[in-house]
Amino acid sequence: MHTGEKPYQCSQCGKAFSRTQDLIKHQRTHKAFSQNSNLISHNKMHTCNKPYQCSQCDKTFSQHINLIKHQRIHTGEKPYQCSPCAKTFSLSSTLKIHQRTHTGKKP
């Protein structure tokens, strides 16, 4: 019988569940983030709230930093440079992947 009652509440965010196993599954989402502010920031991606809009193509983002990274597509800015070969990249993560070509390390 479905009563709509949700007696099992998350102590970290207050979200409530009707079954204990759903609460336990939900609580795992909090373990992946070292700070609650990081979780809150991450959860913004799952909502429709995307207040940051690109003036070039109208794409929207939930976080300002993601808009800044996106705008590099339009500006061609590549602020991350590889020391050994001087190749440049728009994202630090792409530079790190590229640097493996010099070290031979695999992910």
UniProtKB/TrEMBL annotation:
It is found in: Nucleus. SUPFAM superfamilies: beta-beta-alpha zinc fingers (SSF57667). Gene3D superfamilies: Classic Zinc Finger. GO terms for molecular function: DNA-binding transcription factor activity, RNA polymerase II-specific; RNA polymerase II cis-regulatory region sequence-specific DNA binding; zinc ion binding. One of its GO terms (cellular component) is nucleus. InterPro entries: Znf_C2H2_sf, Znf_C2H2_type. Keywords: DNA-binding, Metal-binding, Nucleus, Repeat, Transcription, Transcription regulation, Zinc, Zinc-finger. Residues 8-30, 52-79, 80-107 form the C2H2-type domain. May be involved in transcriptional regulation. Belongs to the krueppel C2H2-type zinc-finger protein family. This is C2H2-type domain-containing protein.
